[in-house]
Amino acid sequence: MLNRRAFTGAALALAAGIALSACAPTEPQPPTIRAVVDSNASLSTLARLLANANVAELGGAGPWTVFAPRNSAFEALPEGEVDRLLLPENREELARVLGVHVVSGDYPASSLVNSTTTLTTASGLSIIVDGFNGVNVGGVEVVQPDVIASNGVLHIVDGIIVPPQ
User: Fold this and answer.
1) What is the CATH number of the domain that holds 90?
2) Cβ atoms within 10 A of the Cβ of 12, count?
3) DSSP string of 46-79?
4) Considering the entire predicted model, what is its pTM?
């Protein structure tokens, strides 16, 4: 049987343990997809296009999978194409082009390798992911898979996925 002194000591130790665990540092949450894009210098063109298209969803709940073209992918487009897409009258086309790079759901590379997968994009179009010999989505290679965000995952790609006409 515990005496009063032992009981009080045990209760104080338990209370101190609970208090300390409440103060323990927690793992920082990864940034949202939008914050990852906005803070990554190699994705600055994508960040500018997303801002112009008013794509706010990528900062929201998700989960999303984004096939994020790096700057060199946009540089490979015909001269003036990015500027053309930034014009107000082309905002709908820009949103469609960007939407082909976004899929609802969380698809890490491990779920895409060694198979062929058809995914429906935010634009409502289907894209084929070929997971044999690397990961290729819509004819574009994933060069950096699994950039984890709090609301999904980004796969950095080396080209622009062209929406079917």
Assistant:
1) 2.30.180.10
2) 10
3) HHHHHHHTT--GGGSS--EEEEEE-HHHHHTSPT
4) 0.80
Does a structural domain hold residue 115?
yes
pLDDT in tens, 19-64: 444 555 567 788 999 999 999 999 999 999 998 887 656 666 789 9
The answer to whether the beta carbons of residues 100 and 49 sit under 8 Å apart is no
d(CA 155, CA 20) in angstroms, rounded, equals: 39
Instruction: State the residue range of the domain holding 86.
Output: 30-157
Give, to the nearest 10 degrees, the angle between helix 44-52 and helix 91-99: 130
- Strands 126-130 and 136-137 turn out to be antiparallel
Query: Is residue 118 classed exposed, middle or buried when 0-12, 13-18 and 19+ CB atoms within 10 A define those classes?
Result: exposed
**Non-local CB neighbours of 151 within 8 Å, separated by 6+ positions:** 32, 33, 58, 59, 60, 61, 62, 63, 64
DSSP 109: G
Nearest to 165 by CA among 78, 74, 93, 88: 93
